[in-house]
């Protein structure tokens, strides 16, 4: 989705690769949900020029849509970073803190429209985890799924949802422009890229972050896989990528090759357990 976290990540990687002369050019292809995105990716054969951005939201999006696809059958390249989530409201909102919001959610959860990414994705799990701190179950929330930050932003600004949740980079420019206010960010400490208090600062003992990574097609030849790993490993140590992480307040959580391959299988299982615990999947 244009304006969403995966697109933002793809552009950030592409721009940094170009700046470091590790890549001549790139294009970004958007799909509106996990099954469509992964389905398109898996339908492409003999593509040595294709990579997919994945993250926490994708396994949940697949599972809650009843898809049989899995990120674990692609070729893992690297996990590249982790991004905090932000809870935002229109500037005219009555909510001044996350605790104001939580009070209304506790009193009448169905009356508070919460906009975020796909059902069962990282935004949904984050708000479900937060609601749990005041005794509200995930299934009792009035959670409205969007295809990404790009489609959510106008509804937050226009007050069509009471609060929006997404990765900080999806809201940062609108907060800076005075079109939104941050109720809370899920990082352990305050961030440079977006102005707002953490949940911890407001007495809520919760931190959370959305990881994103890169997948290659399952049929990528071994020589091309090795070359791709070398390029992404090289990118990780460059000034351009370090500057990107700083500018966006992204956490430098990097693992590649076999380490990422093992990690993503464990993470996929863990995400399914979280969704089942919240009864978002059976």
Give a structural overview.
By secondary structure, this protein is of the alpha+beta class. The protein folds into 2 domains: 5-82 and 210-277, 3-Layer(aba) Sandwich (D-Maltodextrin-Binding Protein, domain 2), CATH 3.40.190.150; 83-202, Periplasmic binding protein-like II (D-Maltodextrin-Binding Protein, domain 2, 3-Layer(aba) Sandwich), CATH 3.40.190.10. Helices cover 42% and strands 17% of the residues. The longest helix is centred in the C-terminal third of the chain and has 21 residues, at 257-277. The model has no long low-confidence stretch (mean pLDDT 94).
Quick rundown:
With 282 residues, the chain is α+β, with helices and mostly antiparallel strands.
Which SSEs are present, and which pair or pack?
Elements: H1 5-19, H2 34-43, E1 52-55, H3 57-64, E2 75-90, H4 98-107, E3 113-116, H5 122-132, E4 142-145, H6 149-157, E5 163-167, H7 168-176, E6 180-185, E7 209-216, H8 222-236, H9 239-248, E8 255-256, H10 257-277
Parallel strand pairs: 3-4, 3-5
Antiparallel strand pairs: 1-7, 2-5, 2-6, 2-7, 2-8
What brief labels describe this structure?
single chain; 282 residues; alpha+beta; D-Maltodextrin-Binding Protein, domain 2; 2 domains; eight-stranded mixed sheet
Strand content: 15-25%
Query: Based on helices, strands and strand pairing, what is the structural class?
Result: alpha+beta
Count of extended strands: 8
Pattern of helices and strands: HHEHEHEHEHEHEEHHEH
Distance between the termini: 27 Å
């Amino acid at each position: 989705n244009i304006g969403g976290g995966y697109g933002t990540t793809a552009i950030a990687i592409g721009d940094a690769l170009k700046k470091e002369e590790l890549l001549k050019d790139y294009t970004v292809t958007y799909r509106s949900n996990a099954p469509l995105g992964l389905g398109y990716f898996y339908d492409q054969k003999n593509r040595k020029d294709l990579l997919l951005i994945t993250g926490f939201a994708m396994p949940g999006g697949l599972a809650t849509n009843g898809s049989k696809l899995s990120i674990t059958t692609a070729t893992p390249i690297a996990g590249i970073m982790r991004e905090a989530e932000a809870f935002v409201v229109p500037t005219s909102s009555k909510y001044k803190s996350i605790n104001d919001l939580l009070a209304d959610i506790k009193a009448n959860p169905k009356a508070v429209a919460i906009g975020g990414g796909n059902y069962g994705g990282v935004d949904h799990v984050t708000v479900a985890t937060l609601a749990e701190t005041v005794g509200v179950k995930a299934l009792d929330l009035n959670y409205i799924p969007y295809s990404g930050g790009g489609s959510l932003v106008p509804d937050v600004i226009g007050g069509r949802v009471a609060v929006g949740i997404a990765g900080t980079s999806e809201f940062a420019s609108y907060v800076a422009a005075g079109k939104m206010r941050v109720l809370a960010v899920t990082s352990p400490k305050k961030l440079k890229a977006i102005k707002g208090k953490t949940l911890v600062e407001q007495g809520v003992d919760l931190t959370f972050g959305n990881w994103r990574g890169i997948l290659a097609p399952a049929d990528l030849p071994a020589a091309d896989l090795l070359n791709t790993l070398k390029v992404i490993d090289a990118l990780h140590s460059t000034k351009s990528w370090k500057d990107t992480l700083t500018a966006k307040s992204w956490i430098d959580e990097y693992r590649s090759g076999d380490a990422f391959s093992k990690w993503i299988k464990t993470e996929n299982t863990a995400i399914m357990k979280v969704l089942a615990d919240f009864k978002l999947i059976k």
